[in-house]
Design brief:
Length: about 190
């Protein structure tokens, strides 16, 4: 009887993880809708194309590197190697911040090249879609900063991996989402 209860509880997903997956599903639907709208609008005669600034490729390297460092942080946490955990969480938060800065540089270069919200064209979609992605990354960076401060706190000694697992899952998601968006725009521009 007791072993059946323990077995049943092991099969249940943590409520926070379930909530995260539901949220990720809604984010996927939002970006699928936006990229679908892009494809529909692109066929209109007044459509204007845009060239992506190269800085977006550098930001891609930063977010891929951050995905690697958060995975290393998760591994270090599970091994209770707190020194390495702190190091990798710090690197992940820094790389996430670098990603956002590089995105803002890309936006300012596009704006400097005359890409704005006027008229009909790819620029409008780039600002909206990339901007929404940056907001999601910013939310992830805030979560990483909370984890960062907890990692360096003297009074908190909780070795429950759920928080870092949630952050890692979300971070990998925004990384894959960025790669999808970049490939989508490279293919369609």
């Amino acid at each position: 009887m007791i072993s059946a209860t323990v077995s049943t509880q092991r099969k249940k997903i943590h409520p926070h993880k379930f909530t995260l997956w539901v949220g990720l599903g809604s984010i996927v639907m939002m970006f699928a809708g936006l990229t679908s709208a892009y494809i529909v609008k692109e066929s209109q005669p007044e459509w204007t194309s845009v060239e992506l600034p190269k800085v977006f490729y550098y930001s891609t390297a930063a977010i891929i590197a951050s995905s690697i460092t958060i995975q290393m942080a998760l591994k270090a946490f599970k091994e209770r190697s707190m020194m390495n955990y702190r190091r990798f969480i710090t690197l992940t938060a820094l790389l996430g911040t670098v990603f956002i800065i590089l995105q803002l540089i890309g936006f300012s270069r596009m704006w400097g090249d005359g890409v704005d919200f006027k008229g009909s064209g790819a620029g409008q979609f780039l600002y909206i879609i990339f901007g929404l992605h940056v907001l999601h990354v910013l939310g992830g960076v805030v979560a990483l900063l909370v984890i960062f401060f907890k990692a360096f706190s003297k009074r908190v000694r909780n070795y429950n991996p759920v928080t870092i697992e949630l952050a890692s899952t979300y971070w990998h998601f925004v990384d894959l989402l960025w790669i999808y968006l970049l490939v989508f725009f490279i293919w369609t521009l």
